[in-house]
Each structure stands twice: as structure tokens, then as C-alpha cells.
Design goal:
This protein is mainly β and 118 residues long. 3% of the residues lie in helices and 51% in strands. A hairpin with a 5-residue loop joins β9 (91-99) and β10 (105-108).
Length: 118
């Protein structure tokens, strides 16, 4: 059974930093594009950042220059380093594992809450 387990959320003051981690099943990780999404009440889930299995990254404009996505293929883990956090970054963050194709998948973690508040 495929699993994505997020960790690292919490409460942080504006300007602070957090690092989210997502440990994925080894059976899918190396072939997956891994993404971080977030959802706030009343809004649709939005892409924050993603990284392909070749290490190509993509960021939403709202987090460029502040967040960094990375992956450790040996540990089957993807990270999201979040710096200079703002109150508007407050959301539930979800890890996603996706592969497009005839044999593809789209798996989600359970989410981890990030609250940016003084």
C-alpha cells in the first residue's frame, strides 16, 4: 500500500522558518514527481512547489525565493524548506506523488498544518 507521511508542520512567527518532510513508499518515489500543495478554508488546493524525478523544480509565484523543494532519493523523502514565512502561508500542506502515463498514479498524504502567527 502506497503511503505518504508528512511531518514538520506547526506554529511559527512571521519571518520564521519551517521544514516539511514527506516520506513516501519506495516503490513509487523514484519515478514520481513530488509536489507540495496547500489549502486554506474557502479556497481550492493550490500547488506550492514540485520536483520531478530528474530534479526539475517548479514554484508558485507566491513562494518563489522563500521556499525550496528538494528530494532525497535514497531516503524516499521530499522536503519543503519554508523561509520568511508570512501569515498568508497559513494552510494545511499536502504532499503529492504523481506519475502521468499508462501506468500512472496520483497519491496524497494526510496533510500537515502550518500556522504563521504572532
Amino acid at each position: 500500500q502506497v503511503q505518504l507521511v508528512e511531518s514538520g508542520g506547526g506554529l511559527v512567527q512571521p519571518g520564521g522558518s519551517l521544514r516539511l518532510s514527506c516520506a513516501a513508499s519506495r516503490s513509487i518515489f523514484s519515478a514520481s514527481t513530488m509536489g507540495w500543495y496547500r489549502r486554506t478554508p474557502g479556497k481550492q488546493r493550490e500547488l506550492v512547489a514540485s520536483i520531478t524525478n530528474e530534479g526539475i523544480t517548479n514554484y508558485s509565484d507566491s513562494v518563489k525565493g522563500r521556499f525550496t523543494v528538494s528530494r532525497d532519493n535514497a531516503e524516499s523523502t521530499v522536503y519543503l524548506q519554508m523561509n520568511s514565512l508570512k501569515p498568508e502561508d497559513t494552510a494545511v500542506y499536502y504532499c503529492n506523488s504523481r506519475k502521468v502515463g499508462l501506468i500512472g498514479w496520483d497519491h496524497w498524504g494526510q496533510g500537515t498544518r502550518v500556522t504563521v502567527s504572532s
